Give the backbone structure.
Amino acid sequence: MKHTPRALILAVSALAIASGAVYAHGEKSHPAQPAVSKKEQKAWGIAGDPKAVTRTIEITMTDAMRFKPEHIDVRQGETIRFVHENAGAVMHEFVLGTRKELDEHAALMRKFPDMEHDEPYMSHVGPGKRGEVVWTFNRPGEFDFACLIPGHYEAGMVGTIRVAAR
């Protein structure tokens, strides 16, 4: 297959444009959660059905790089609606996961601070705004949540969720 310079330039340009969209993030708002969340089983549970919510937990995010509350107890099988209020002046996020996964994601965020992501276990909340995550904890254990915006995680913006077995 012969590649002409024009075809090569077009291919490289298309790739550059497409890859640039992947890293758009910054202080911009994120699109609303999709109507149907991805139902991918994770070690810490699976995206929950809003109709199945058994409890709502409000979490405040502050510019002191803290979540309130920092520790949450749930029972295996509960579907929780986390409502996040950003009481600060900068963007914050709430990301559920294991410590290992959060460490890996935080490293990627440091490398690519403008990375865009929209998973059902994440909520990006602008200053003075609210966001939410609906999650079903179908596995027992201790899991974590964090703000992975560069500098926030390192400053201690983390919390734990203990899921008690049935």
Remarks:
- The first helix runs from residue 5 to 22.
- Residues 6-37 have pLDDT under 50 and may be disordered.
- The radius of gyration is 18 Å.
- Strands lie at 46-47, 55-62, 66-68, 71-75, 79-86, 92-97, 122-125, 130-136, 141-146, 158-164.
